[in-house]
């Protein structure tokens, strides 16, 4: 269970959100919507541990995660809009880098996990390709596989359908639904209302449900 309590953030004295509180249970997908500039990415960056919040707390499965913007752990897996893949590494290397270097897994372990993720996300035939050789939808799936390789407690997607065609969007929807059926805890930030509706989960509208 992800539990956000009274999270507050301002930039230069301007409050972006105040007392933001909600929970996301395993197997649940929370969709976060709202117009550009409302604070969705700011929230994701705080959740990812990349920037500090001013107050409040983030708890995952009863464990408090730091909100000072210096978190090193792999509790939260974020799939960024531009994917942030390492251009100099192949698909397999992108997926195995953090398990190898950060989690210090044994070769047999990370190799097996990567093979399973590649098969699961239909990427096996691209395992030796570099990011520049992939389509947007394929890069998106590599970013999801790379996040999943660290076995995060929460997966958060920033605008996962931006730049994707209809078929790739449907594919992202079915991946999110597959992970949902395996009890993942997922958050999806999106502008894409038909996509948000297709996810069929709770919706948090930053323009209505959030104090500032
Ligand atoms: N580092 C920063 N310093 C000052 N203001 C910032 C900073 N980062 C973001 N902002 C402001 O905070 C507000 C929220 O930005 P944020 O990027 O979180 O919005 P968003 O809802 O994700 O928008 P979009 O959908 O366009 O990505 C915006 O007004 C933005 O200009």
TrEMBL record:
Keyword Nucleotide-binding: yes
Alphabetical UniProt keywords: ATP-binding, Hydrolase, Nucleotide-binding, Transport
Keyword Nucleotide-binding among UniProt keywords: yes
Entry EC no(s): 3.6.3.21
Protein's recorded name: Arginine transport ATP-binding protein artM
One function term, GO molecular function aspect: ATP hydrolysis activity
Source species taxonomy: Bacteria, Bacillati, Bacillota, Bacilli, Lactobacillales
Database matches in Pfam families: ABC_tran (PF00005)
EC primary class: hydrolase
Stored PROSITE patterns: ABC_TRANSPORTER_1 (PS00211), ABC_TRANSPORTER_2 (PS50893)
Origin species: Fructilactobacillus sanfranciscensis (strain TMW 1.1304)
ABC transporter domain: residues covered: 2-212
PANTHER family tied to this protein: AMINO ACID ABC TRANSPORTER ATP-BINDING PROTEIN (PTHR43023:SF4), PROTEIN TRIGALACTOSYLDIACYLGLYCEROL 3, CHLOROPLASTIC (PTHR43023)
